[in-house]
Hints:
This protein is mainly alpha-helical. The protein has helices at about 5-15, 45-50, 60-100; strands spanning about 20-25, 40, 55. The protein has a three-stranded antiparallel β-sheet with strand order 2-1-3. The chain starts with a helix and ends with a helix.
Amino acid sequence: xxxxxxxxxxxxxxxxxxxxxxxxxxxxxNDGGRAGRAMELSRELAAKMIVDGRVRMASAEEAERHRAxxxxxxxxxxxxxSSPREHFLIDIAERKSAKGKR
Length: 102
């Protein structure tokens, strides 16, 4: 394996990905990788995994579906975790400040 050519290929793929993170879809691999799982990766990691044959670039439809799913999951997580935790932290801060004033 020509290491210099390998890294040149990675840099070439990375430049072709454009700016920002890349949405890729996994491929079947000999070491147990399962095909069809979409994920968002940094350009550097996406380029390396494309060259290694572990992922492929997601189509426009796959990318849009992945963005919609992750947006929904993030909103759901934020709705479940934000308000009780914020209230709890504010309550602790208020109690600490009240103790200091005594």
